[in-house]
Amino acid sequence: MTATGHLRGFLSALREEGLAVPVARQRDFLCALTTVPPRDVRHLYWLATATLTTSVDDRAVLDPVFAAWFAGGTLPALSETEEPGAEDRGGGGEVTPADQSAREGAGREASWAAMDHQATFALTTLTEHQILARLRRDLPPAVPTVRSRRRTPARRGDRLDVRRVHRDAWRTGGEIVRPRWRRRPRRQRPVLVLIDVSGSMKQHSRDHLRFAHTVVATCDRAEVFTFGTRLTQVTAALRKRDVDAALSALTDVVRDADGGTRIGPSLLQFLGNARHVSRARGALVLVLSDGLERGDCVPLTRAVRRLSLLAHRLVWWSPLACDPAYRPVTRGMAAVVAHVHELAGVRDLHTAWEQVRKEGRWTSEWTSEWTSEWT
Amino acid sequence: MNEAELAQGMRAARYFADEGLLTAVYLALTLGRPLLVEGEPGVGKTELAAVLARVLDRELVRLQCYEGLDAGQALYEWDYPKQLLHLRATGVDAAAGVGEVYRAEFLLERPLLRSLRQPTVLLVDEVDRADSEFEAFLLEFLGDFQITIPELGTIRATEPPVVVLTSNRTRELHDALKRRCLYHWIPFPGTERERAIVRAHVPSIEEDAADSLVRAVSGARRLDLLKRPGIAESVEWARGAAALAANGDPWPVALRRALGLLIKDEEDMAVVHAHIDELIAP
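Output (structure tokens, whole complex):
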């Protein structure tokens, strides 16, 4: 086979293995080979990575194909030290229960079973549509705001809009008649929703997910994750206009619904990913969970503490807290309550809507009655 | 400049690049494409551009990205107060004044325009922090290296700038932007290279102290930390320990006392303190 044929074969093998390199970049690769003749296989490898990959993850495809076509098996190590992925940090290992027989106090028991099946979420009734409409109306104004970095023209502002003053002055022969202003408008903070879809939350997760759909539909910057035994990003699946269509799309994505609970490790997995953490920074973080953690509560405490430091407001909604007699005395919740800014009872759309209407809680400085009362 | 000269120049500027990075930089220079570098914080992404500017003897133009960055801060802005003052002072009539005040002397250069006016290295720092509107705008600029100012005409680069983009991967960049760039991921350095870096930046550090420092840093990177220390932190740590050692502390003690320069988080500090004897031999 000629050298050209060999290169062409290499590039099409890459495409077959799932790394679709655009023609422009393929041309770059070939240009690179002619302008910088490779000294050896190692050098050729680095030429290939610089021109053919656009992310460090692409090397997972490139490396074996390259080895098969050029190297005869030997490849330079990806890094001299270790794999770079930030995802592998935190929440990695399976947490073994310290005491399986420990009773968890109030509420249903959390189970250990990891599930992998499709859950179905039932359809929305008419009155629920009305509540959803109210949520859509009341949610956006309830989200805390932050001052935007980008100044916009405004009637009253803190900085002179010299550009507009100047433009206006042209109409009046260079005479300044009236000053114009710019200011930094307020914009919504990002909203991050973390939903517990484990077995103990089974009868609430349907409503919680529909609430999350409203969040995605109405808020400017929203991100939704579900967790049971693992963490799943569901924002894209929820980005459908119709609630029921969005929820049925979820059944393909959320594979651990109605299974066991591993809140702490799931949250740590979230915090171990730099891309996810940037979603929580300065955001309104809503955690919808009963906080019934099996076994070791240390990961849960660590995760919640970190989350509350990152977030603007950390709000924990638990269906158990709807009961006036409820006290967060389970080991998990007792540890969590010291770090959350607000703990409230939400079991369905109606209670969620009631909480949203108490927007003042999110926007004003928080004084947590829960924390002072029980710690 | 060939690849060997480039490598030598960068080493002389105290930047120790591995073969992959050297290849990527050399390709970016020969093909005239922007280079997108990613990597953990503190592995020398920004420093790469500064070093390139020194090696190529060009001016470094830096554009720090942030959310809400707009064209007025990235490209150019007319100096409106100056224009108005000029009009008041000279008292030209409106018809003649139009051309009068739209001249180069009333133009405020922002980084992207500046990078076209003379041979430069353009650093677009932390491009993942800017919003996607800015990314689309940057795309246009990186495509043909020209800026059109309606009042003045199109300004083309006399010599295309060497462009380095850095990203911390907090957000996925658009494919269109990535397609125009060469890509390199900078990993944490191996012990050999890290020792060379530390010794080059902190000449006063003793040989075996540098050894144990580098071992401690790579040990700390293996721990379950919120923020793994980068090269910047280990150089700072070495510098701090050297200052303490100059005061009379023995090296292991100096390293321990200066630990706050390596670990910047209370929880991480607790983890490191739990393993301190494995990391730094007393």
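The radius of gyration of chain A is 27 Å.
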